[in-house]
Design brief:
single chain; about 130 residues; mainly alpha; 5 helices
Length: about 130
């Protein structure tokens, strides 16, 4: 036993030291967890905004394309298409360049827009954004 120190004083000092060490280790871990969570939430919101802009693109192009036979060209020249194209499945990317431009009377969206809408839905699911 250390001279002049009681057992309770020593126990208090040990508990205080252990609490200090644990507190010093736990706080950075919680801060890191919080930072990762915030970054994940920001990335999810960025992806949601991207999906929304692609859907707006489809509606804008469809509105512009009324009476036009080249919907695919309108899609491919839209600014938002450039951010979408790297995410497209190869067969959908090819369809955008090769698919015949056919309008079916009574359809709401052109075939190219319908195809792209399905592909955006696939990307949304792949990114885990559906609730």
């Amino acid at each position: 036993m250390l001279s002049g120190m009681s057992d309770s004083t020593i126990a208090t000092a040990i508990v205080g030291a252990v609490a200090g060490v644990v507190g010093g280790l736990v706080s950075p871990v919680f801060n890191l967890i919080q930072k990762v969570r915030e970054e994940r939430n920001a990335e999810t919101e960025r992806k949601r905004a991207q999906i929304a802009s692609w859907r707006r693109m489809i509606l804008e192009v469809d509105k512009q394309a009324v009476g036009s036979s080249d919907v695919s060209a309108l899609l491919q020249t839209h600014a938002d298409y450039l951010s979408l194209e790297p995410h497209l499945d190869e067969r959908f990317r090819n369809a955008a360049y090769i698919e015949p431009r056919v309008w079916v009377v009574g359809e709401h969206l052109s075939r190219a827009c319908q195809t792209l809408k399905k592909e955006i839905d696939r990307i949304e699911g792949e990114w885990g954004l559906r609730k």
